Amino acid sequence: MTQPKILITRLIPSRGLDLIREHFPIFDISSHDLPPTREQLLEKVRGVDGLLCLLTEKMDAELMDAAGPQLRVISSMSVGVDHVDVAAATARGIPIGNTPGVLTDATADMAFALLFASARRVVEGEKYIRAGLWKTWHPQLLLGADFVGATLGIVGFGRIGQAVAKRAQGFDMRVIFHDPNAEPVYGANPVDLDTLLHESDFVSLHVPLTKDTKHLVNAGFLAKMKPNAILVNTARGGVVDQAVLYDALRSKRIFAAALDVTDPEPLPMDSPLLELENCLIVPHLGSASHRSRDMMSLLAAQNLIAGLQRARLPNCVNPEVYK
Ligand code: DGY
């Protein structure tokens, strides 16, 4: 086989890069920390056979056409593929690879980290000390929520939602979930969305971003939550309407929110959410553990290599291209 033309849009962990190098020693890879601009990307994709991207790059019809008809595979180092126009890829016969499974535990851990930090006001406590406000132990200082016996509502009960339920068992929480396509596991009981919102002390989001889940968390959703409730989002920023979330947090309609993901990313520094003490925000760190990121790079490399070799991708989001 002649050496295919490969573009890797960002620097990825060496686990994946080394595997690619073993099969295809020459590839174009960005050495910059920041994603390429759209113009740079449209220029760089011209004539490529294989493309490995991150969730920071939009893979749409325009980009696929700029690459050309020889494009054999788009491999994303992510499980979510809302940045990829999968229908456009399928129409062009291009398989899309993703990296499921290997970030399940890390993301569930992050959901719990946010849940704990919000409920027990860890960041507020830390800021309190640094502001020089700690004068004495106080029986009413920064009181937060209890876990034992509390109800955790999980919206979207796929791999990550289930891993969150598994962790909640260890804290003696009652777990309910809403997902018409999932079976109960780890003692979690299925309920309709309204019941989940009315009964949950914690609501954790685990749905992919699609046209159906865009702004799933809207004014109506927040109005049904308990006033003591905490909302945790480790899914995608677009699942939450941030303007209405701001109003709900500011008016104390709900107790707090903890967001690993925002819309857009990065969140602009003038976002009103940043003014709120009861909104904890971290920069999309759900899968940011050493093992997860190594494994994501490996799976992305395997998908890229398979696509270039015209073999079936080990993890393909549009298997209908093989029909
Ligand atoms: C993914 O892979 O979709 C995650 O959001 C990355 O953390």
Topology:
Blueprint: E1 6-8, H1 14-23, E2 28-29, H2 38-44, E3 50-53, H3 61-67, E4 73-76, H4 86-91, E5 96-97, H5 104-119, H6 122-130, E6 151-155, H7 159-169, E7 174-178, E8 189-190, H8 193-199, E9 202-205, H9 219-223, E10 230-233, H10 242-250, E11 256-259, E12 279-281, H11 290-308
Parallel strand pairs: 1-2, 1-3, 3-4, 4-5, 6-7, 6-9, 7-8, 9-10, 10-11, 11-12
Helix pairs in contact: 1-11, 2-3, 5-7
Bound molecules: (2R)-2,3-dihydroxypropanoic acid (DGY).
Specify Rg, calculated over alpha carbons.
21 Å
Each distinct ligand? (2R)-2,3-dihydroxypropanoic acid
Give the overall shape.
elongated
Instruction: Determine the fraction of residues in helical runs and give it as a percent range.
Output: 25-40%
Strand order, largest beta sheet? 8-7-6-9-10-11-12
Taking the sheet with the most strands, its summary is: 7 strands, parallel
What order do the SSEs take from the amino end to the carboxyl end, as H and E?
EHEHEHEHEHHEHEEHEHEHEEH
Structural class: alpha/beta
Mean pLDDT: 97
**What distance separates the N and C termini?**
24 Å
Count of separate structural domains:
2
Instruction: Tell me the number of strands.
Output: 12
